[in-house]
Amino acid sequence: MNGSGDTTGMAWDALRALETRSLSALFAADPGRVEAMTRRIGWPVMPDSAAEAGMVIDYSKTHLGRDALDAFEQLAEAAGFAAAREALFDGGIVNVTEGRAATHGALRGSGTPAQVEEADALLARMGMLVEAIHQGALGEIRHCIAIGIGGSALGPALAVDALARDLAMVDVHVVSNIDGLALEQAFDACDPETTLIAVASKTFTTIETMTNAASALKWLADNGVADPGGRVVALTASPEKAVEWGVDETRVLPFPESVGGRYSLFSSIGFPVALAIGMDEFRAMLAGAKAVDDHFRRTEGRANAPLLAAFVDQFYTRLKGCQTRAVFAYDERLALLPDYLQQLEMESNGKSVTTDGAPVDGPTAPVTWGGVGTDAQHAVFQLLHQGTHLIPVDFIASIAPGDVLDPAHHRTLLMNCLAQGAALMAGKPSDDPARAYQGDRPSTTILVDDCDAAAFGALIAFHEHRTFANAVLMGINPFDQFGVELGKAIAKQIDSGEGEFDPSTRALMAAAGLG
Ligand code: F6P
User: Fold this and answer.
1) pLDDT digit string (tens) for 23-48?
2) 206 C-alpha vs ligand 1 centroid, how far in Å?
3) Cis peptide leading into 374, omega within 30 of 0?
């Protein structure tokens, strides 16, 4: 998936040689800049309807001029972007270190016919179970404790929080942490008589998930549920392990090994989401993601919205040395989006070697962080406006409100969102240095027409493809995560007491009673 090192090196050199103009200079030089730097991706409001909804992404407040866009397009070509993208959707081995394809696109219909057929069959199976549960096949189910961690929790937690606020058909609690307080909190909110346990784990070996799952079963048993095992659904790429663990085969919902954990929300890992919002809404989410897949697959160069986002990311990280990027959702429903994006971007692209195993020739993923607007304005925006760090910011908002209160709420929310981007760019001179705003600070604004299931799916797919495009431009593999293994292995050594520990860790083990 890597282009030739020489040509990518030359493309980076060309980018480094460019002069960076201020945002105001870029706008002054190009009256058509807003239009030239804005992308829209649309999808039908309803299946088969002519009316369209969509999302708009305005990149004009970033420091990319036409010369930088030309140079980034050359970099994309040198890095073999078109071939890598084709390989992604065509079942090619894009995860080279693990010798696997990455088939999350097939979950929403973007893949080879065989992959799409397999994904459709698995989705149909999940749909049958979801609908059977809604119809009472497992008795009255009012709550679901969804147990998983990382990619088996962050997506479902975000989606349930975003989409199930008004219409939760089942009240879902996602529990990830091994800290028993997390599970106890879910127990307190659920009635064991009417609670389903969904155990989500790609590998079905993750210690946090397996420990929490065992405790959840015990909780059901301790509270008089006659057949706790009958209340468990497993969501996994290792169905044989789930069966071995004791889950009845009819309640094991598999997904393909080639779907990575942090790319798995649209697989059976999304079962708790489907349980909460129903299969029609789940399918609407897939349709929104598919619209972005289609755009990403068929659009070239700077016209391609996720690729353009990656140009912006690379510009700030590699050429301007920005070590972080911030995401602020001006929408309560997307409050967990920064957490989700942290795993997607940092676990995918936080690497130090290229696909060939050579050291990378520049910084890779920045630290993704963020929060929810307007709250963050009153907490961290001081640093964005007047601090010494240059931090590219993404603002995300929905044009339609999610609430039914006085329209002043949503109007004020949107006003503030737009005002922050304008203020970061414009700045404000002052004779008093403490009151001066330097300005010329970059932001990208994403507006969805309405934060519904389709828009949500589109937002997720947009970020998946942006992450992939970034990886291609850097020549790295976004689909492995070997960096998480060492800590797990040492935890096991601490458990067994076998192993060589440094003096600090030995002392801490003694202090914590783990010696
Ligand atoms: O430790 C990291 C990781 O492997 C993530 O990549 C993954 O999403 C998470 O753990 C959970 O893994 P599993 O779904 O196999 O339980």
Assistant:
1) 999 999 999 999 999 999 999 998 78
2) 7
3) yes
Catalytic residues: 347, 378, 488
Q: In testing the pocket of ligand 1, which one of 95, 98, 152, 349 has its CB within 8 Å of the most ligand atoms?
A: 152
Distances (CA, A) of 434 to 380, 382, 425, 438: 17, 12, 18, 11
**DSSP single-letter state for residue 481:** -
Total count of residues recorded for the chain:
515
CATH of 112-277, one of 3.40.50.10490, 3.90.1200.10, 3.30.540.10, 3.90.180.10: 3.40.50.10490
The Cα–Cα gap between 342 and 11 comes to: 28
The model's pLDDT over 45-81, given as tens digits with 9 standing for 90+, comes to: 987 888 999 999 999 999 999 999 999 999 999 999 9
The rounded Å distance from CA 148 to ligand 1 centre is 8
What span, in angstroms and rounded, lies between the C-alpha atoms of 357 and 5? 13
- Residue stretches of the chain with pLDDT short of 70: 1-5
Comma-separated ranges of CATH 3.40.50.10490 domains in the chain = 5-101+282-480, 112-277
Ligand 1, residues at Cβ distance < 6 Å:
149-152, 201-203, 206, 209, 261-262, 347, 481, 484
Output the residue whose Cα is nearest ligand 1's atom 6. Answer: 261
Between CA 198 and CA 445 the distance in angstroms is: 36
Specify whether the CB–CB gap between 142 and 194 falls below 8 A.
yes
Cα(4) to ligand 1 centroid in Å equals 32
Mutate to test the pocket of ligand 1, among 97, 203, 259, 349 (most ligand atoms within 8 A of CB): 203
Distance from Cα 416 to the centre of ligand 1, integer Å: 37
CATH fit for domain 5-101+282-480, picks 3.40.50.10490, 1.10.390.10, 2.40.10.120, 3.30.1490.20: 3.40.50.10490
DSSP class per residue in 374-406: TGGGGTTHHHHHHSSS---EEEEEESS-S--S-
Q: Long-range pairs for 217-222 at CB < 8 Å and ≥24 separation?
A: 219/183, 219/187, 219/192, 220/192, 220/195
pLDDT at 1: 43
Distance from the alpha carbon of residue 201 to the mean position of ligand 1, in angstroms? 7
Please name the residue whose Cα sits nearest to atom 2 of ligand 1. Answer: 484
In angstroms, rounded to a whole number, what is the distance separating the alpha carbons of residues 111 and 189?
A: 40
Q: Fill in the DSSP letter of residue 315.
A: I
The secondary structure element, H or E, covering residue 251 is: none
